[in-house]
């Protein structure tokens, strides 16, 4: 964190001090920066940070369920694999993998599996030094709320926030990115596998929509520059991006925005991402290879 | 110098986490996505958060900021850079919405200009909920 924040500070000082009258966007991606350069003039204040906020695996899992997917334990990373992961890089990636599996099990209200995947996440988090995030107190709360999906989801979200924060406060921001990458790859693996099995149009569309998220994830990883631990995953994500980049995006008629003050408006551009069976197959194979490299 | 920066960074990060935790309840009944989206900004500072939103979910954005920063505002831009929301129009610090198709949105958070030299934490909390659990919050 020291190195990254120092770089951010230097970068932001450079940008703040060199801005002209044009608006400048300073792409220093990440989810928690502590850029501290004070603005001294209106020109300087136009320097702007761009940060990438990734959707949580919970959002993708919730969408899978609402798209008609059913729980399939065979798709998840077996809990017995937890003892295989030796390096910190592998532990962080698989903390993300097991985190997604935990959320997936919880969304589908699989209490026993949720408990088992919580233990796996706890094992890896402890090995990475995050003892009090998934520790005994959290485990007691998990057990007490095992039958309440929404409460459990809130506990998992809080643990994720604490883990994310822990890495950043302890000068290990790359570990935070590895957890995010592991979690996203696992979510995409689950989605492509279920899409391949069920041929459900709704689930296939969910897979195609991950095209949006991938760009932000790559932006996040690249924001760490030459961090050694991220070289491999950066290359893996770019291989997946090649397959997403060929998907055709068609703009469609925009949805109307509600005029009622009591309803949430529908906003944004309207479009459809088309993916053929062959493209889905190629994507599933690539994601499967990368996911297995992470989990084996 | 490095030690001082490190110490400041640690403190700033912890303060931002505390700010997020203090404000998570404002997302209810939405589920917090568990991420720390925050930045420390000076007076007049601006930060863009790129967020991916999925059709089929309803979202709540909640803005949190340190009191010393004054009236911090946010606006939301779609993929074509069209402004779809501006909090300064109604002084709101939360906003619920759906997206017409899955896409990236940009949330731009701005700290007002002042004559004083200040800095503080701003945080964007993102909550989500399946649309079939919302009832009234359905896309048109």
Features:
heterodimer, A: mainly alpha, two-stranded antiparallel sheet, 7% strand, B: alpha+beta, Jelly Rolls, four-stranded antiparallel β-sheet, 1 helix, globular, disordered N terminus, disordered C terminus
Topology order of chain A in helix (H) and strand (E) letters: HEEEHHHHHHHHEEEH
CATH class of chain B: Mainly Beta
Q: What form of chain B results from the Cα inertia axes?
A: globular
State the major sheet of chain B. Answer: 5 strands, antiparallel
Low-confidence stretches of chain A: 1-46
Output the structural class of chain B. Answer: alpha+beta
- Radius of gyration from the alpha-carbon trace of chain A, in angstroms: 20 Å
Blueprint of the fold:
The complex is a heterodimer of chains A (about 300) and B (about 140).
Chain A: H1 2-18, E1 25-26, E2 32-33, E3 48-53, H2 57-66, H3 88-107, H4 111-127, H5 136-144, H6 149-169, H7 173-198, H8 201-222, H9 231-245, E4 248-251, E5 266-267, E6 271-274, H10 277-295
Parallel strand pairs in A: 1-3
Antiparallel strand pairs in A: 4-6
Chain B: H1 2-23, E1 31-32, E2 38-42, E3 46-53, E4 57-65, E5 73-77, E6 83-86, E7 94-99, E8 103-110, E9 119-130
Antiparallel strand pairs in B: 1-9, 2-9, 3-8, 4-7, 4-9, 5-6, 5-8
Describe this structure in words.
The complex is a heterodimer of chains A (296) and B (140). Chain A has 296 residues and is mostly helical. Chain A folds into two domains: 2-49, no CATH class; 57-295, no CATH class. Chain A is 59% helix and 7% strand. Chain A has ten helices and six strands; from the N terminus they run H-E-E-E-H-H-H-H-H-H-H-H-E-E-E-H. Chain A has helices at residues 2-18, 57-66, 88-107, 111-127, 136-144, 149-169, 173-198, 201-222, 231-245, 277-295; strands spanning 25-26, 32-33, 48-53, 248-251, 266-267, 271-274. In chain A, the strands form two sheets. Chain A has a two-stranded parallel sheet. Chain A has a two-stranded antiparallel ribbon with strand order 4-6. The longest helix of chain A has 26 residues, at 173-198. The radius of gyration of chain A is 20 Å and the shape is globular. The two termini of chain A are 29 Å apart. Chain B is α+β, with helices and mostly antiparallel strands. Chain B has a single domain (2-133), classed as Jelly Rolls (Sandwich). Chain B is built from one helix and nine strands, in the order H-E-E-E-E-E-E-E-E-E. Chain B has one helix at residues 2-23, and strands at 31-32, 38-42, 46-53, 57-65, 73-77, 83-86, 94-99, 103-110, 119-130. In chain B, strands 1, 2, 4, 7 and 9 form a five-stranded antiparallel β-sheet that branches. In chain B, strands 3-8-5-6 form a four-stranded antiparallel β-sheet, with no helix packed on it. The radius of gyration of chain B is 16 Å and the shape is globular. In chain B, 53% of the residues are buried. Mean pLDDT of chain B is 85; it is low at 1-10 and 134-140. The chains are: A mainly alpha (296), B alpha+beta (140). At the A-B interface, helix 1, strand 2, strand 3, helix 2 and helix 6 of A face helix 1, strand 1, strand 2, strand 3 and strand 7 of B.
């Amino acid at each position: 964190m020291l190195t990254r924040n120092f770089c951010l500070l230097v970068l932001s000082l450079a940008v703040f001090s060199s801005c002209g009258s044009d608006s400048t966007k300073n792409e220093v991606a990440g989810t928690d920066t502590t850029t501290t350069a004070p603005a001294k003039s209106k020109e300087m204040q136009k320097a702007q940070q761009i940060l990438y906020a990734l959707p949580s695996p919970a959002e993708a899992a919730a969408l899978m369920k609402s798209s008609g997917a059913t729980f399939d334990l065979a798709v998840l990373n077996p809990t017995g694999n937890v003892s295989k992961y030796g390096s910190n890089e592998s532990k962080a990636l698989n903390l993300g993998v097991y985190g997604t599996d935990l959320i997936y099990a919880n969304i589908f209200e699989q209490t026993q599996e949720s408990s088992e995947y919580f233990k796996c996440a706890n094992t890896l988090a402890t090995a990475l030094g995050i003892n009090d995030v998934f520790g005994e107190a959290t485990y007691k709360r998990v057990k007490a709320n095992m039958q309440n999906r929404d409460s459990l989801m809130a506990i998992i979200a809080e643990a994720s926030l604490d883990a994310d924060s822990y890495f950043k406060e302890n000068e290990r921001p790359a570990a935070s990115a590895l957890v995010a990458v592991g979690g996203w790859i696992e979510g995409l693996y689950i989605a492509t596998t279920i899409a391949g099995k069920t041929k459900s149009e709704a689930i296939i569309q969910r897979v195609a929509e991950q095209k949006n998220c991938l760009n932000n994830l790559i932006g996040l990883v690249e924001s760490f520059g030459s961090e050694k631990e991220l070289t491999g995953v950066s290359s893996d994500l770019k291989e997946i991006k090649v397959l997403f980049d060929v998907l055709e995006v068609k703009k469609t008629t925009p949805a109307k925005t509600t005029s009622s003050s009591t309803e949430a408006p529908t906003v944004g551009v309207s479009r459809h991402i088309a993916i053929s069976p062959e493209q889905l197959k190629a994507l599933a194979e690539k994601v499967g290879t990368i996911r297995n490299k992470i989990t084996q | 110098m490095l030690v001082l920066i490190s110490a400041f960074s640690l403190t700033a990060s912890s303060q931002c986490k505390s700010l997020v935790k203090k404000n998570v309840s404002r997302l209810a009944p939405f589920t917090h996505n568990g991420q720390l989206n925050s930045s420390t900004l000076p007076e007049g500072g601006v930060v863009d958060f790129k967020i991916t939103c999925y059709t089929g979910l309803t979202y709540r954005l909640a803005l949190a900021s340190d009191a010393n920063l004054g009236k911090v505002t946010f606006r939301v831009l779609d993929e074509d850079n069209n402004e779809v929301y501006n909090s300064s129009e109604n002084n709101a610090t939360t906003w619920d919405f759906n997206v017409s198709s899955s896409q990236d949105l940009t949330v731009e958070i701005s700290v007002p200009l002042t004559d004083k030299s200040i800095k503080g934490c701003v945080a964007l909390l993102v909550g989500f909920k399946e649309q079939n659990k919302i009832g009234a919050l359905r896309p048109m």
